[in-house]
Amino acid sequence: MVSEQIINELKSIVGKDNVFTSKADRICYSYDATQQSFLPDVVVHPGSTEEISRVMKLANRELIPVFPRGAGSGFTGGSLPTRGGIVMCTERMDRILLIDEENLVATVEPGVVTEHFQKEVEKLGLFYPPDPASLKFSTLGGNVAECAGGPRCIKYGVTKDFIIGLEVVTPTGDIITTGGPTMKGVVGYDLTKLMCGSEGTLGVITRIVIKLLPLPEAKKTMLVLFDSIDGAAQAVSSIIRSKIIPATLEFMDGRTLDCVRQATDLEVPEGARAVLIIEVDGDREFLDKQAARIAKIIKPLGVVETRIATTPEESEALWQIRRSVSASLRKVNPNKYNEDICVPRSKVPEMIRKVDAIAEKYAIPIVNFGHAGDGNIHVNIMVNKKVSGDTLKAEGAIRDVFKAALELGGTMSGEHGVGIAKAPYIPLEITPEAARYMKAIKQALDPNNILNPGKIFFDDEDFVAE
User: Fold this and answer.
1) In whole angstroms, how large is the CA radius of gyration of the chain?
2) How are beta strands 274-282 and 218-226 bridged, if at all?
3) How many C-beta atoms lie closer than 10 Å to residue 429's C-beta?
4) Nearest-angstrom CA–CA distance, 58 and 55
5) Where do the domains of the chain lie?
6) Of 24, 274, 309, 332, which has the fewest CB atoms closer than 10 Å, so is most exposed?
7) What's the number of CA atoms in the CB half-sphere (13 Å) around residue 49?
8) Nearest to 266 by CA among 186, 204, 324, 351
9) What is the Cα–Cα distance from 112 to 208, expressed in whole angstroms?
10) How confident is the model at residue 215 (pLDDT cuts 50, 70, 90)?
11) What are phi and psi of 313, to 5 degrees?
């Protein structure tokens, strides 16, 4: 437990109005999208880098664990306060400090909401492509910590591809800067990339330098229905092989389409067993030609129907099919485990067949959709936790799904990270030698294991969810 004396010291650092100790307040910061809950002893909302540094030095002196938190929208428990201690929420640090239109660079604080930042740079004709599904409420600090992805990754890359500099408070309270506003820089180790995706275990991000692009002039959206997942996957490869890189290539399998049919009024032909949502962007004069060329390339691959939007409203209507998926899954079962495996894109059909076999083995529904362009499949294992044995079946299915992805040369997480949800499965993918080096980095930066302990690699100390 955090003593009253320590709470008073925290108040002197961040202000008494930014320290929360009531159970009601602490419950609000005890969970994330996993719906697991661990109650912190205290929640602090620092307002500056210096305040975060002082909190970390205090935590090291008293050996109190600290758990950085953005919006708490993660799917793997990365921000959960699994050992009580201090939740350090960066919501107050929400300023866009600079948008440099000449050098196409922005500097922001970690609490800036992703969508808000995107809209602000787009007003100036600029573009920040990473677009995780949580963009309406997730923060850029959390995006960097998890190396967030999204549908546009196939063309533009993930968060780490746009982060060129950071200000970070280390676990021991030091303030360091990594990288900077230049497009090149090779002095010393690349600590920027090390921090990006480290899930809050190696440092608290306090300032982010972001590379921007010119905003594409226009975009065109196509929805293509196929008679098989094989045809849809082959279409992805054929499009890219033809030297066309769409901004997005989203897919849904047959079971997902069944959910959409049952839950919405959207018209989906019965013969459709897979769908691709293809969006191209760039100069307006080329988009019609590009869309026509894509339609020609994929026509022999079992296309049931093609819908091409001609207005922004029609484009939004096509995307509505994809956005209806999450809500429609509740028709299958009330609870789900949302995994985010990634395989080489040519292996997507084989992976889907393996998942279907796993679903049959455990007699449990599994629904698949995701980012076909980069082979990132969201495998939704649907359960009813009130039914005896469903949770155990789901755990077995998850392990088998991870093993299947790895057998195909893939990974057990394309964009959600490890946190605590996937930590038990780390030995399936990371060799003991590689894990030893990663743990050595953590120990060097965090000798007292203060910052977000127990994430990615479980420690000897056990914990139990409330």
Assistant:
1) 23
2) antiparallel
3) 18
4) 5
5) 4-91, 96-214, 218-327, 333-417
6) 24
7) 18
8) 324
9) 10
10) very high
11) -65, -40
